[in-house]
Amino acid sequence: MTDLPPKPPARAERVSLLRYMRLFRDDILSAQPARLYRAWMAEFRTPFFRSYMINQPSLVEEVLKARPLDFPKSDRVGEGLRPLLGNSVFLTNGPEWQRQRRIIDPAFEGGRLRDTFPAMWAAGEASTTRMPEGVVEVEEEMSHAAADVIFRTLFSLPIEAEIATRVFHEFRAYQRTQPILNAAAFVPLPKWLPRGHRAETRRTAKAIRALITEMTEARMAEIKSGTAPDDLATKIMTTRDPETGERFTTEEMVDQVAIFFLAGHETSASALGWALYLLARYPAWQDKVAAEAALLPDAPDFGAMSKLRVTRDVFREALRLYPPVPMMVRETTCPETFRDRPVKVGSQVVISPWHLHRQERLWENPDGFDPGRWETENGKQCMREAFIPFSAGARVCTGAGFAMVEGPLLLAMLVRSFRFERVEGDDPVPVAYLTVRAKDGIRLRVARR
Predict the structure, then answer these.
(1) Nearest one of 156, 217, 9, 184 to 83, comparing CA atoms
(2) Percentage, residues of the chain above pLDDT 90
(3) Buried-most residue among 101, 221, 297, 301 (CB within 10 A)?
(4) Is the pTM of this model over 0.85?
(5) How far is the C-alpha of 446 from the C-alpha of 239, rounded, in Å?
């Protein structure tokens, strides 16, 4: 076994555009050449537009932090996700995005994390109860656990509730059919033309939105009758835009719940699955997490999170090596100059956490698993300049703080109860579809401690 955890093979340097589109659709990671792990910038040309992958911290900061409104999200990515996400905060730009954030952000402020912590804890306990022993496909188990967290914190429903179970299973089907980008990302299409979505993608997206609509309408009724629980859904649905006084309509709330589920379930499941695999591969670190987790109390105590320092660093290292969202795409709205190269209006600007987190010019031991790096000067500098698992700047993920409590907590609770061991000869191969997942799942040998 090599000292390094697996990463996808890089493609040959030169391939045809058609071949590149096919590779990109199948797996965005292995479609990229190896030079991107050391390049500060790379240009990709198609007959219709230019793309620039920026891998230099100062350029990333310019796009994400210094001038985010000049680099809105690209509709080329939105084309693939719109059947499920509609007009959610993940896809909007400009004043509409700003309005949505004004309503959503208060639900995720620091004090609310403490309020939602008991629900996270309950989901962690349920996960340890469900976890089987023997050889287990842990990605599937982590999908179940992350979905449980979302339903408990958002709608006060455990995953076992009938409607929650139906949403979960439909979302699993959707996840397997939806690539990050579809054909519309490469070829500009008139608005009236079909966007090239697969039939199964359209079916599952419609089913998920119907179920979320049912949940949202039920909560609207509870709010009107004064019987709604004090959870994230109620908080968001009762918050007025401080500038207009408006609340989300049912349709708008369906869009937002869809992205909460995508961002909060799919990404957390990805990170937790990879974190468990890394602990199984490096048992000395697993022992450190187990020792730390043994000090957790038997009842929810938000203050105990400050004691999970090793667990937090392990989870952070999993996010570095396997960032759930491997690439983000912005678009130029005015002429730019990147590294002395003119960039035209309408160009695509690709920011790749996958490549930035492994940038050979920035990180010490970029492909290695080393949770201790976060205490080094290099690790601290790279955390500031080259670590963006939740994006950065104005469009940083609303739930970033939520995720950094959920991930270490569930990881600690699972390792406190179970030992995870690598299955010899069955290492996962990372691929990027909706998120960075294992091509054929992650199988580990699980035994109760």
Answers:
(1) 184
(2) 69
(3) 101
(4) yes
(5) 44
